[in-house]
Design goal:
The chain is mainly β and 102 residues long. The longest helix has 5 residues. It has one domain. 9% of the residues lie in helices and 30% in strands. The chain has a three-stranded antiparallel beta sheet with strand order 1-3-2. It has a three-stranded antiparallel beta sheet with strand order 4-5-6, with no helix packed on it.
Length: 102
Amino acid sequence: MKYDIVEISETWFKTGDDVAIGNLHSYSTSSRPSAKGGGGVGLLYKSSVSVNVQNYRTFQSFESLPAETRTLCLVVIYRPEKVKDSNGHLLSFKCPWRSFLP
């Protein structure tokens, strides 16, 4: 089976890395590297599928990459195992689900 869209977490991409990954025959990529190093989220998709990566908000407890095709709205979410606030306290997984769901 050849997938139309593959969602990826823990990409460890840096800015520009998606170009190298996108050299796969007939596939394109979009990624959002983590601001903290490591982590990151991405999409690998058939070039024949029109994917529009949406504007995104940043969240303290997870990374996200929202996108649309003609028939789908999707979002890749990655929550690192241990996310801490500026005081070193472990954050719970807080997601504003209403901003993602109709």
